[in-house]
Amino acid sequence: GKTSGRDKDTSVERCEVELQEDLDETECRLVIRLICGLAGVIKLYKLTYEPVHVQHAIFDRSKATNEWSIEPKYLKEITDHFGPSAEHLDIYSEQGKAVFTSFTTKSSDGKEILRQPVHTSVAIEKRDFDYYLAEDHLHVAIHMKDFKAAIAHAETANAKITARFTRPSRPLQFAYESEGVKTEFTLMTRGESPGEDVPGSSRAAPQLSARQTPAPVQISQRNTAPETAQMPPPRSRSIRPLTGTSTRASQSNTETQQPPPSMEFDSLFVPADDDRQWDVPNDEDEGPVEDELGWDATGEQV
């Protein structure tokens, strides 16, 4: 259709781009000029930038023990089987196949309600790979969105993608090259090695046994045994109740270890057989009293 006069005035006639990058200038600018319509309207955009040191993730390809290469379209096909809410991707090799398993956690966002975690596994034959060398049952897990971004970019560049990694919890790198453009995606992985639990448990066992060994008890037994052997049995002491300081325990010991009755005056008590010795004298029963030596009030001897 016909364009109005307003559209002619605001349409862009030409675009001028200028790069200002002189050594004597402190700033570098990218200037873009848009000349619009017959009115001579100029729109000016300036982008200031500066050179910076580009940081790269450290990844040593010479130490990578697992590697495979494949066309990105095959990887794109398996992602179609994964749900849109899948978060993690587990990759491992088993029985001549490469298995890709997606994990979706429980969610209740909007209309989507997922009560239990779901995982979906898709296998690719090793013969479909251009190159495949990986250890069996070695699981490495990465984020699904990183995996999709790498294969989507490789598919756009129509380049074969290569994955290199060593073991779980170590970096994994997707790399491809096309028309002089070298692309690398270095990702962090998660997972456990196949024999990782066994050495850990064997190392922990001596520590647990060392903690459970009652070392202080053995030392106390060695120290107390000679003392017990050298310590003589307690001597039984004769307690004199006249002092009035005997305790209940000592009285029980005295009763259990009471010596045979005797006429010694160490004790206040006498046997029942000798009670007659303490009776009041009976003059009627006895015969005539013999002469006795006594004292009267005057102190004279009678």
Automatic annotation (TrEMBL):
Location of the region described as Disordered in the Swiss-Prot/TrEMBL record: 190-302
Acidic residues: bias regions: 281-294
GO terms under cellular component: checkpoint clamp complex
Polar residues compositional bias, start-end: 218-227, 243-257
GO BP: cellular response to ionizing radiation; DNA repair; DNA replication checkpoint signaling; mitotic intra-S DNA damage checkpoint signaling
InterPro entries from the UniProt entry: Rad9/Ddc1
A Pfam family the protein falls into: Rad9
Name of the protein: DNA repair protein rad9
Organism: Aspergillus niger (strain ATCC 1015 / CBS 113.46 / FGSC A1144 / LSHB Ac4 / NCTC 3858a / NRRL 328 / USDA 3528.7)
Lineage of the organism: Eukaryota, Fungi, Dikarya, Ascomycota, Pezizomycotina
